């Protein structure tokens, strides 16, 4: 009989640390634990933090400029110029064929909306701007919702607010030595309590050294499931909350095959941060 290979290994020649012993105990119980290379060093975390500062500045620049009548290509231009001015690289540009530097997702577009000159923002639109920056090889990923013109319908305003609450509740559920499923459970409970659907086809993810790493961070699920969360792990939480069904489809008119639309074409909202797990809970790296 072939023995199951252990995921967690102590450093050669060193006594197991308290963290080693905790992780090995969970693994012995049959829980999915991270591998050691998923734990970022202090130097790596500092690099991701610096990228997060640029990422935040980029979204701040969008917040200052966004207005009724603006087209989404102008948002892309702002993000590209901000990256150039701050020695950063927009991670989205040319990623698996994605043609722009940022994602701009309006109303029923859940995510991966492609900036275009013909997409002109109207008063009352809600738009998610999703930016990932690379600074000195380190990735930081965040997104914000904007209400164009500052006022929209009560229904859309409530959706935007609850989506932000879902991010905050998910982050609060992320504790050291808890599980990814705890995050998803908390988000799903809050969203469905408010009558909304939680997108299941896309998720948060590990990030920092690469654009997308393990673990997958589902925004629905059950407590005590998924990967164990331990100090030093860096990941995004980015719930996509739909006004109606959780189901989605790819826009057939998108020649790049990226834009994701709600199944019933009702509005969607999303907020995202990059977090590092500490001994006391998560810390936001994309303030």
UniProtKB/TrEMBL annotation:
<dbReference type="GO" id="GO:0006508">
    <property type="term" value="P:proteolysis"/>
</dbReference>
<feature type="binding site">
    <location>
        <position position="141"/>
    </location>
    <ligand>
        <name>a divalent metal cation 2</name>
    </ligand>
</feature>
<dbReference type="InterPro" id="IPR036005">
    <property type="entry name" value="Creatinase/aminopeptidase-like"/>
</dbReference>
<dbReference type="Pfam" id="PF00557">
    <property type="entry name" value="Peptidase_M24"/>
</dbReference>
<dbReference type="InterPro" id="IPR000994">
    <property type="entry name" value="Pept_M24"/>
</dbReference>
<dbReference type="GO" id="GO:0070006">
    <property type="term" value="F:metalloaminopeptidase activity"/>
</dbReference>
<feature type="binding site">
    <location>
        <position position="112"/>
    </location>
    <ligand>
        <name>substrate</name>
    </ligand>
</feature>
<keyword id="KW-0031">Aminopeptidase</keyword>
<feature type="domain" description="Peptidase M24">
    <location>
        <begin position="46"/>
        <end position="279"/>
    </location>
</feature>
<dbReference type="GO" id="GO:0046872">
    <property type="term" value="F:metal ion binding"/>
</dbReference>
<dbReference type="InterPro" id="IPR002467">
    <property type="entry name" value="Pept_M24A_MAP1"/>
</dbReference>
<feature type="binding site">
    <location>
        <position position="205"/>
    </location>
    <ligand>
        <name>a divalent metal cation 2</name>
    </ligand>
</feature>
<dbReference type="InterPro" id="IPR001714">
    <property type="entry name" value="Pept_M24_MAP"/>
</dbReference>
<keyword id="KW-0479">Metal-binding</keyword>
<feature type="binding site">
    <location>
        <position position="130"/>
    </location>
    <ligand>
        <name>a divalent metal cation 1</name>
    </ligand>
</feature>
<comment type="similarity">
    <text>Belongs to the peptidase M24A family. Methionine aminopeptidase type 1 subfamily.</text>
</comment>
<dbReference type="GO" id="GO:0004239">
    <property type="term" value="F:initiator methionyl aminopeptidase activity"/>
</dbReference>
<protein>
    <recommendedName>
        <fullName>Methionine aminopeptidase</fullName>
        <ecNumber>3.4.11.18</ecNumber>
    </recommendedName>
</protein>
<feature type="binding site">
    <location>
        <position position="272"/>
    </location>
    <ligand>
        <name>a divalent metal cation 2</name>
    </ligand>
</feature>
<comment type="subunit">
    <text>Monomer.</text>
</comment>
<feature type="binding site">
    <location>
        <position position="141"/>
    </location>
    <ligand>
        <name>a divalent metal cation 1</name>
    </ligand>
</feature>
<feature type="binding site">
    <location>
        <position position="272"/>
    </location>
    <ligand>
        <name>a divalent metal cation 1</name>
    </ligand>
</feature>
<comment type="function">
    <text>Removes the N-terminal methionine from nascent proteins. The N-terminal methionine is often cleaved when the second residue in the primary sequence is small and uncharged (Met-Ala-, Cys, Gly, Pro, Ser, Thr, or Val). Requires deformylation of the N(alpha)-formylated initiator methionine before it can be hydrolyzed.</text>
</comment>
<feature type="binding site">
    <location>
        <position position="238"/>
    </location>
    <ligand>
        <name>a divalent metal cation 2</name>
    </ligand>
</feature>
<feature type="binding site">
    <location>
        <position position="212"/>
    </location>
    <ligand>
        <name>substrate</name>
    </ligand>
</feature>
<keyword id="KW-0645">Protease</keyword>
<keyword id="KW-0378">Hydrolase</keyword>
